Amino acid sequence: MKTIITYGTFDLFHIGHIRLFKRLSKLGDKLIVGVSTDEFNAMKNKAAYFSYQERREIVESCKYVDMVIPEQDWQQKRGDIIRLNADIFAIGDDWLGKFDDLSDICQVMYLRRTQAISTTEIKASLATF
Ligand code: C2G
Asked: Which residue intervals define the domain Cytidyltransferase-like in the entry (predicted)?
């Protein structure tokens, strides 16, 4: 059983998120997603349109996702990986290098982001709609 773990806000769920989950699901047998809580988003200076509960329900509904946990702080990844026996930590390459410190307990992978879409771009284009 190979377990993959990733984290994010996943606001305004879009094709970039789906393609990430689809690729991650092919790397192993179980995909765990840490969804940022509203409080942690505030620490990331991110204001999500949908609440944590709504974003969690959306991510849980994705067929590629096996388990969702709350992401409450920057420090929890190491403990989560050990507790959940994750073999791979993976995240988009906008975070390239940021989580290399986890490579002593799991494989760390940075996957290419899907181009030309982001929650920020969606909000901006809707604002001018
Ligand atoms: N992503 C992607 N392609 C896009 C947009 C996002 O592959 N067009 C990926 C990001 O690289 C990230 C994930 O989708 O791996 C979630 O993106 P965000 O919701 O923006 O999450 P972020 O704010 O980067 O939070 O501790 C890690 C942080 O919680 C990550």
From this structure: 5-123
Ligand 1 nearest-atom number relative to CA 10: 19
Q: Is 8 in the pocket of ligand 1 (CB under 6 A)?
A: yes
Q: Report yes or no: 18 and 57 within 8 Å, Cβ to Cβ.
A: no
Q: How far is CA 75 from CA 52, 64, 66, 99, 114, in A?
A: 19, 25, 23, 11, 27
C-alpha of residue 88 to centroid of ligand 1, in Å: 16
ipTM score: 0.98
- Find the 83 Cα to ligand 1 centroid distance in Å: 23
Location of structure tokens 């349109």: 49
State the pTM of this model. 0.96
